[in-house]
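Q: What does the assembly look like in three dimensions?
Context provided by user:
Components: four
Sequences:
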Amino acid sequence: MNYFLLGQSELFAGIEAGELDNLLDCLNPVKKTYQKGEYICRAGEPLRFMGFVLSGSVNIERNDAWGNQSLLGRVAAGEVFGETYACVPGEILMVDVAAVEPCEILFLDMGKLLTICSSACGFHNRLIQNLVRVMAAKNLNLSRKINDTAPKSIRGRLLSYLSYQVVKQGGYKFEIPFNRQQLADYLGVDRSAMSNELSKMQREGLIEYRRNWFWVKGE
Amino acid sequence: MNYFLLGQSELFAGIEAGELDNLLDCLNPVKKTYQKGEYICRAGEPLRFMGFVLSGSVNIERNDAWGNQSLLGRVAAGEVFGETYACVPGEILMVDVAAVEPCEILFLDMGKLLTICSSACGFHNRLIQNLVRVMAAKNLNLSRKINDTAPKSIRGRLLSYLSYQVVKQGGYKFEIPFNRQQLADYLGVDRSAMSNELSKMQREGLIEYRRNWFWVKGE
DNA sequence: TCATTTCCGTTGTTTTAACAACATACATTC
DNA sequence: GAATGTATGTTGTTAAAACAACGGAAATGA
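A: Here is the predicted structure of the complete assembly.
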């Protein structure tokens, strides 16, 4: 097990390496590996475990009955997915989870995780607090996506997304983690129309960009 | 304090009346009252406490700089709001919280809530598990809103919303909790255009409706 | 019951984004 | 470095939603 990654992760933050063994014994996780492009979970299935990405990264996607795809987010190594569904018994997955690259996933039983196991593993409490923070952060990401898609115009959505990137990345020049098609999916707009709008915004001097690098011009 | 409501709520579910006193002593909550239309929290503020609605109900709204309003949801008595923000120190509110009617709010300190207080209040663990489930449920609601606004067409959004109501309310005839303007805000579309689309769908025999009552016709 | 207000549906116009099709730039591989 | 494939940008057309304005129905309150 990669203890360094675990220690670095949000979920296991603040738990000492010595305690991790106890904790993992208590949680009894299952490790699985996946190929690039392989589906880890499919919409419609129930989910009893939460997933912790040990290596690689996964996409959270929604593919509706008519073939429209919407990229909801990406989960990198050290991050988790499915914790929400795993908390609500009987709830079925609304999204697909797919491996972007080869990856290893650690599946954690939510029932065991939420049950304090007497004194055997002293850091169990800490784990739960971390989980709550992780869920809160994820919640905020969802809220952010809602904000970014709330404006009716493509420009409004782009400005919402880019403004937040300025704050998040702490500067007016930054790199975004999406290509055009993915950004368009995230914002719920047509790619070419979005490219068009980006061009206009650049001509008007609002922004400059080159591939994935953006420069938002002042206030 | 209304112990009956507390016992009925998700957050305090499974905690006996006798234990509630200990628990509340430990949490040391603050109670405030608000008038109809009054803002309980404003976007841009940080939030150190989570809110528990003792009576009345509140709207979660987003009002952007250009005056566009988007209704994100409603929180009724016995439900909570702001728990996400309260979990992430330094995070500022992206939304406004407004009283729909006169209401009483109990503010709970998240720091105290997440810290297990030795053996004094035995149901503290239960409270935390409840909180996690509440956050998960809220998370799913956000996901649902994202799903409902993912389709590009008004009809697609309506079908997404109505299909879920069928599942949620367990039947093809149901009442929705929004008026037309609020539903349009929730779906992120124009009210009159939505009315128009509803008419079309009724003419085509997909649905029937009368005010807030809807009847979704078959599969 | 009447007056007032709020809510809902309809229509026509305008704006905007989706869509399709193509051109160009970039990256990758051999 | 040539060839291929992928990503991005551009343009014109079409479809759809936003918008504005209004009429009528239903709820509300005196």
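Follow-up: Confidence is low (pLDDT under 50) at residues 64-68 of chain A.
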